[in-house]
C-alpha cells in the first residue's frame, strides 16, 4: 500500500501532521532550523542523517519533551506546539525512545497494562473500593495487553520481568507499550538498534503489519538503511538540523547532496575527496 503525501488538491488541515518553521536553539546552537513537514494519514516516513543532525530532537519537539524556540506543530488540525507530553500522547501521538525506557522492575504484561491505564483511567472511588466496574476494566486491560503481546510474539513471556528480556525483545516490548496508548501517529526512534539482521527483518514485517491492522501513520528515525529504503515511502535527510533532501527512496538515493554527503564522492572524483564514511553507506 502506498499513500503519498504529495496529493493534488490538498488544502490546509488535510494532513494528519503539519509542521511549519520549527526551530530549537540550545545555547546558541541551532539543533533544528526551519523544519517543515506535511504527513498524510497512513504514510511511513523515514528520517535519516548523521549523529547530531537533529533527528531525535525533532521527535522530542513533536511529543512535548522539548519546547520549540520557534515554529508551529499541528496534529489533526489542532495546534499542539506547547502542549505537555501527556496531553500530546492522549491526542494520539505515541513514541519509542532511542534509549529503552521500560519499567524494569515490572513484568512484561504489567508494562503494557500500565501504559493502557494511562489511556483508560478509572475514577478514584471505583479504584479505592475495587468496585465491579473497576475490576471489569482491569480484566479487559489485561486481556487487551495479552492480545498485543501475542502479535509481537511476547505472550509466552508475559510474566517475565521486563529487564530479563533479550535486548531485541525489549525493543519490541517498547513498541507494544506505545501501541497500548492507541496512537494514530507512531514515532519510532531507532527501533532496530541492537538487533541482529534477522530480528531487524522480522521487525520490518511487523511494522508493516501493525500499520495495516491499527491504521497507523508512522515516522521513524533509523540507522538501518536497507530497512529504511525498503519500508519507507518517503525519506527526509537531515544535516545540521536542516532538511537537505526529501523524496521517495529512489529520489533520495539519487540526490547529489545525499550522494556527496553520505554515499561517497561523486563518480570520477579524486580518491582524496571521498568522505570519511564507508562508500555506499548512508549514515542515519
Largest β-sheet summary: 6 strands, mixed
Q: What is the first-to-last residue Cα distance?
A: 25 Å
Q: Structural class of the helix and strand makeup?
A: alpha/beta
The total beta strand count reads 10
Please tell me what the overall shape is. globular
Helical coverage, percent range: 25-40%
Averaged pLDDT, please? 82
Number of helices in the DSSP assignment: 10
Strand neighbour order, sheet with most strands: 6-7-8-3-9-10
Compute the gyration radius: what is it? 20 Å
Could you explain how this protein is built, in words?
- Helix 3 crosses helix 5 and helix 3 packs parallel to helix 6 (167-179).
- The radius of gyration is 20 Å and the shape is globular.
- The relative contact order is 0.16.
- A hairpin with a 2-residue loop joins strand 4 and strand 5.
- It is built from ten helices and ten strands.
- By secondary structure, it is of the alpha/beta class.
- It has helices at 55-62, 85-91, 108-119, 124-129, 132-151, 167-179, 197-214, 225-231, 249-254, 256-263; strands at 17-26, 29-39, 44-48, 70-75, 78-79, 93-95, 185-189, 217-221, 234-239, 242-247.
- The chain has a six-stranded mixed beta sheet, sandwiched between helices. The protein has a four-stranded antiparallel beta sheet with strand order 2-1-4-5, covered by helices on one side.
Amino acid at each position: 500500500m502506498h499513500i503519498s503525501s504529495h496529493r493534488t488538491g490538498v488544502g490546509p488541515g488535510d494532513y494528519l501532521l503539519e509542521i511549519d518553521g520549527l526551530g530549537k536553539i540550545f545555547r546558541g546552537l541551532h539543533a533544528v532550523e526551519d523544519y517543515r513537514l506535511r504527513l498524510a494519514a497512513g504514510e511511513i516516513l523515514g528520517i535519516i542523517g548523521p549523529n547530531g543532525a537533529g533527528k531525535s530532537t525533532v521527535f522530542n519537539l513533536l511529543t512535548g519533551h522539548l519546547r520549540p524556540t520557534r515554529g508551529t506543530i499541528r496534529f489533526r488540525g489542532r495546534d499542539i506546539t506547547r502542549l505537555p507530553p501527556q496531553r500530546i500522547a492522549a491526542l494520539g501521538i505515541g513514541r519509542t525512545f532511542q534509549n529503552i525506557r521500560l519499567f524494569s522492575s515490572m513484568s512484561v504484561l504489567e508494562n503494557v497494562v500500565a501504559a493502557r491505564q494511562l489511556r483508560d483511567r478509572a475514577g478514584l472511588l471505583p479504584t479505592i473500593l475495587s468496585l465491579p466496574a473497576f475490576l471489569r476494566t482491569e480484566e479487559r486491560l489485561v486481556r487487551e495487553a495479552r492480545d498485543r503481546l501475542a502479535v509481537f510474539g511476547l505472550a509466552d513471556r508475559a510474566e517475565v520481568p521486563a529487564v530479563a528480556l533479550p535486548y531485541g525483545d525489549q525493543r519490541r516490548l517498547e513498541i507494544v507499550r506505545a501501541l497500548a496508548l492507541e496512537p494514530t501517529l507512531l514515532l519510532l526512534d531507532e527501533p532496530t538498534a541492537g538487533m541482529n539482521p534477522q530480528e531487524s527483518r522480522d521487525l520490518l514485517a511487523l511494522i508493516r503489519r501493525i500499520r495495516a491492522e491499527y491504521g497507523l501513520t508512522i515516522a521513524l528515525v533509523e540507522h538501518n538503511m536497507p530497512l529504511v529504503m525498503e519500508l519507507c515511502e518517503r525519506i527526509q535527510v537531515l544535516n545540521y538540523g536542516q532538511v537537505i533532501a526529501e523524496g521517495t527512496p529512489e529520489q533520495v538515493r539519487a540526490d547529489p547532496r545525499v550522494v556527496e554527503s553520505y554515499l561517497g564522492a561523486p563518480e570520477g572524483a579524486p580518491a582524496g575527496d571521498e568522505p570519511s564514511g564507508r562508500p555506499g553507506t548512508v549514515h542515519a
